[in-house]
Amino acid sequence: MALEAGDSEQEDDNKDRLNTRASNGKMDHGRETQGSEGEEEGEEEEEEDEEPRLKYASLTKHLKPVYRNGDMTSAFLVGGDKMVIGTHNGNIHVLSLPSYTSIRVYHAHSTSVSAVSISPFPPPLPAPRSNANNRLASAQKSSPAPSIAGTSKSSTPGRSPQPPPVPNTASNQIYIATSSLDGNVCVASLTDPKDVMLRNFGRPVQGVALSPDYKNDHSYLSGGLAGNLILTVGGRSGTSSKSNAGAGAAATASGWLGAIGLGSNTGQDTILHSGEGAIRTIQWSLSGKYVVWVNEKGIKLMRSNLHLETHESESAWKRINHIDYPDRAVWEEMAAVWKPRAKWIDETGLETDDLDTRHVNGPLPKSQSQTSYDSGAPLAKSTARRNRSEKLLVGWGDTIWITNVLPGDASSGKRAGKIARVEILKILRVDCIVSGVSLYTPSLLVVLAYVPPGESQSSPQYTPTSGRHRRQNALQPEIRLIDVETKEEVSVADTLNVSRYESLSATDYHLDVLPAMVISQRTASSKGALEIIGGGIWDVGMYPARLFSSSASVRSNDSHSAESSSRAPSDLHVASPVPGSDQLVHPSALTHGMKIFIQSPYDCVLATKPTLTDHFNWLDAHAMYEQAWNLLDQHPEVAGDNFEASTESTPSTPTRAPAKGQGTLLDFFLDDRSQTTASGPSQRNLDSHVEREKRRIGELWIQQLTKHNDWSKAGATCGKVLTTGDHWEHWVWVFAQADKFEDITPYVPSTQLQPPLPSIVYELVLGYYVSNDRKRLKRLLERWSTELFDAGPVIEAIQGRLQVGDIGENSIEDGHVGRDWRILMECLAKLYLADGRPAQALRCYIRLQDADNAMRLIGEYHLVDAVSDDISDFILLRVSKEQQRSAPLTELEHASREPIRLLVAEAHHGIVRPESVIKQLNTRYGTPNPYLFFYFRALWEGETAIGGQKKGETTSADRKQSLIDERLVATEGKALVSDHADAALPLFAEYDRRLLMNFLKTSQTYTLDFASKICKQRKYIPELVYLLSKEGRMTEALRLIIDEIGDVSQAIAFAKEQGDQSLWDDLLNYSMNKPSFIRGLLEEVGTSIDPVKLVRKIPEGLEIEGLKGGLKRIIREYEIQHSISEGVARVLRGEVAAAMADKGKGLNRGIKFEIGETNKDPITMQNPRTGRPRQVKKGYCPGCERAFIPEDPELLISFPCQHVFHLPCLLSMDGKGTEDIPASLRDLDWQSEFDRSIGPKVDHAALIRDQVDQGCPLENQDAG
Question: Quick one: how far is CA 932 from the chain centroid?
Fold first, then answer.
């Protein structure tokens, strides 16, 4: 409980009267209780139902080297991947996190260490594992092989063994300052044992704070019982010196000489503040700008010399503010006794306020927006202002201060010139002594509370005795979470089970935190959450054998002793690390949330935020099975963690009393090792374990609901959690025995399980509803597949129920006649189908007059033959008696379409022949018979049930195949109708004249006389004209058109279609006494008849309306025809002339002759007419086989086949002698007679053509 400072004195007194505390839901022993036992039990039960906000683990066994030889811890600090512990014997232990491996141990003081500081703080995180490993390997190569003290065989007697070197990595390059009651301050480098300074201040030093930039400025602050806040600057490594604070001119001179290199350079001490009592705490802010210290008068804040802005150049080491302790009597006495605890808060590393943001093996979600606290003012601040402020918590005695330190304002105004401002956001008063404090979430404080003994103890209960011998009546420390706004504890205080707490006081306890690591989801998903933080700082959980390249020990049990190094000038004793620290990492260290470390002289406890696995275990232990199952369903990994933990053999050392059902320590914490180690379970085993765990929790949940008679929710839960057939069978029988069918039935699986649910379960439920609720029975059979159960028993149950007699066609249920009977018959039909008896199912549907299902069965199971003896009733399955009497043809067609199409399909299959259908329908209805007409038309047009089913095809190939199938069906149907053409003709004439004409033109099997008779009776002139023309009675047909129809256009079209000149004559003769026909002939006949003949046949004196226009039109058509003919003639002449020109060019073109060459191989030439090859010598005459020469005296004749002859040789091959050559050719001198004139050339060409008009003799021989 927390109270606002300044409350009444009565509230001040009440803090000593609280005599009871709860520890993990149990009343702590040694406390007096108030009230009746019944009240205690009720309070105890209420506390047991509260889920813990933190989980705890003891780290004592991991820190055994620290407590060696009975040593006890007195100072403590964690940061980055380091833990630094100071002991009462003056030893300093530096350990690596999260393995708790000892990095370095050295003896710095002769008595208790009072404070520890690190620079820089927090230390830098390690480099990525690969780089760190490289540096570590290089360090190992360059340094002698290290050894462990006490195990080296080559160690020189009387000399201390050389400790292993600390890897010189970035994360190890830190300085550690410690203060002690012996008056000394020791500053040592972690990596270099020689880089150490020891300074004596003459009085016990209670606090020390290294400058965040100590590596460069070598300055630190210290204070103690002397009451002086001292700034020490400089000093030489490896030396021990005394403080020169207050030495005056000597110190100044020493500093001046040291600055120029002539002094001893022992450092300079400057007193920044004094005179207000002992200084117990000094803390440098995280930014390095501010320093807080606490003395007996109050809390002081000062501006440091780091990061000074331009306007702050004169503000270094100037005090900012002073906060007095509360004005209460107890403070006058205890202010000097209570140890103040100051903590600068890293607000980015806080946990979230939402308890549901737990995580399992994953990165923490980024913290929500931080909340500021300001008494009497709005809590919300501007984002810019928040980013520049630093939050400070101070816990002192029974009071906690929450403050914000904001930088000064350089601008002009009211606040101009101020160094910084301190805003006190909250002051909380608690009923305990604060031994440690920090922010857990933006709205929750975590307080390490020391509860004073009861009122029976006098005031010395607050005062610890000197030395290590304490009183033996102290109580256990507690961890409290306090809401800053309400000032109330958000949960029951957790009592810590630490060793020898009875002898400890408030100053013996310490609390420090490692902030939560915020990891981007993108990086976490790509590299793995544990691999990211600091490039591998926490990845030891995944690679436990590698142990932290950043600061792991590099010693080896088999190595030899290294050369002894020179002892530090300050005579510090450096101890060797303790062997055997290569142990597995504690699982709690691998979580990514905030880690709260609680240190007592004999124990170390780690508190972390519970994970989803912890939440699941708590729900399970407290019988909150619904929430546990839902959590497991959303996050299956919570069961996986328990499964992995169960495969490990790790002893349990819980620091809290175990809750009901709690297992080993690993049940509390996250363990990532199983993800990569060979001993981890396979994914398949993990999945099976998750399913088993879900079933276990689900079963417990259902048991819980049935125990409380919540059967409705229990049934719904069964549908959610049960996944196997045997479990379902069990619970269905449980519900059946309790007669709770209504609660379980809606959730019984409607799909097959593995292993399958026995069919008797479904039969049991269906049998119940056959007798009790037929409507539910129908819905169940619609929802459940008949493959889930055996239909036989259910059929027998329904038949037995129908035989009772109380359910029939005329029974009334809820005002509906025969409702239950129809339901049972429908269910019976469905079960018959499932049992492989479609004929019985069809009978049920027929009794129900359910045409849809009846048609479906007939189509699917080809049961038309079952109704082939009563086709008329089958067709009327959907046609009521009222429709038969008065319905129009379209309504009858629609009602009977499906059975007729089915009959058509069966006719194509040959099952129900058209003859049987025609006979039964004619017998039932006579003539005219609309149903027979529907049947014939469906046959003719190919309307079948099969064709209708294929209309849903979508792909191009399917549509094409569907069209082909439909055409084939229609063709076959037309053939079937043609077989009964004379029976179909009257029906087509009666009901569909369009179809009649199509039938007359398509079919060839009907009787022409019968068809003509029907058309004459009905005066269907177009059909009769077609029939007459089909019989060859053209004149009669034309007379019908002229006399009956009177349509000259149709008459002209008929004459044109027939192409008979005698019809044109008949048309002219029939039209001469009809002026309208004459006009029509003039307008439409065109060029089909001679217009002169048409005009001459017109009787003289006959008045014809529109004669002039008709004559003009016919003349214009002839003009157009003449113009077209002339145009065609011109085009033809032009094309002929062009072809003649091309031919002339070809004839006038010269022919190339090859000159003969000796020894030239013959070439193969192909006969263009016969295609047979022939070998000739190119450039030689085939007749005389003499070669052609350029001035050959003989006339050369060349043919298109490329054969070239001498003219005499050519004539001789044609059987002509020299005497047969005309004298004009024989006496012609080719060299002298030919000139360039064309006349002689033409004459000679004509003479030669007359002689060689038979063509090439060689080609003629081949052709022969």
Answer: 62
